[in-house]
Amino acid sequence: MANSAAVPGRPRSRDAAGLPAVTPDGIVAAALELTARHDLDSWTLRQLAAEVQAYPAVVYHHVGDREAVVSAVVNQVIGMFELPPEDLPWREWFRRLATDLRAVLTRYPGVARRISVYGLTVWAAAPSIDRGVRILQEAGFGAESPDVYVFLSNVICQFISVEDEQVRHADVRARNLALWSSHRDDQTMPGLAALSASIHAVASDPARRESYFADTFDYSIERCLDGVAARLDIIRK
After folding, report:
1. Percentage of the chain with pLDDT > 70?
2. Which CATH number fits domain 84-168+205-236: 3.40.309.10, 1.10.10.10, 3.50.50.60, 1.10.357.10?
3. N or C terminus: which one in the chain shows less Cβ crowding within 10 Å?
4. What contacts 217, CB < 8 A, 6 or more positions away?
């Protein structure tokens, strides 16, 4: 079965058909490509089988069901990410973690959401957890170090997940921007008007529209780090 072609009428031998052998690595690579093009949740096992020109049963034989393939994709994506150096101060370490994770995860939409909801396998998460928690312990967070790590890593993945969805539904985002921008002259609700003016300033400036997600992400991470730093001051008292 593993050497059968996916399309009726083709030779049963992949060699005879001029097709490369189906391998677990090749299947995961094809799933990565589908994820980059369509989002992690938007391809089927049948589509994946078509990518490697095999039957779905062949994919199942080599890797497993769709859930197994998705897990392998997530692990592969995390494997592309290089951890920040250990000698960085805790705040710079997590700032670098956030920036570098975003650079990797935004190339594979849906992976950040998957991590936010289901987490990572121990194999994939262990290096980051071990280094990040140790850096927090050394900084003085003590028993709260694991909690701080989970908080910051969840914030990072959730912001990237929101970005994925907004990029995916760009038409909805454009309509919402136009709607929210229309209240900037509402004198009866000055708080809403201020927010509307801020949104309009971004929506009407191509450069700011282009950098919006990166700017919002960086601002949000910095404010979270401010809060964690304030918590460290309390712990040290």
Report:
1. 92
2. 1.10.357.10
3. C
4. 98, 102, 159, 160, 163
CA 192/CA 120 separation, integer angstroms: 39
Quote the pLDDT of residue 216: 95
d(CA 56, CA 65): 9
Please tell me the predicted confidence (pLDDT) of residue 19: 66
Report the sign of the C-alpha dihedral through residues 228, 141, 104, 30, in that order.
negative
- Give the CATH number of domain 14-76: 1.10.10.60
Q: What is the pLDDT of residues 72-92, one digit of tens each?
A: 999 999 999 999 999 999 999
- The SS3 of residue 236 is helix
Model pLDDT for residues 23-62, shown as the tens digit of each residue: 999 999 999 999 999 999 999 999 999 999 999 999 999 9
120: Cα separation from own chain's centroid = 12
Residue type, 60: Y
Contact indicator for 5, 18 with CB cutoff of 8 Å? no
Q: Which two tokens stand for residue 113?
A: 């959401």
Residues of the chain with CATH 1.10.10.60: 14-76
225 Ramachandran zone, left/alpha/beta (phi>0; psi -120 to 50): alpha
Handedness of CA 90, 93, 97, 103 (dihedral sign): positive
Q: Could you tell me which residues come within 8 angstroms of residue 20 by beta carbon, excluding any fewer than 6 positions away?
A: 14, 26
The rounded mean pLDDT for the chain is 91
Residues of the chain with CATH 1.10.357.10: 84-168+205-236
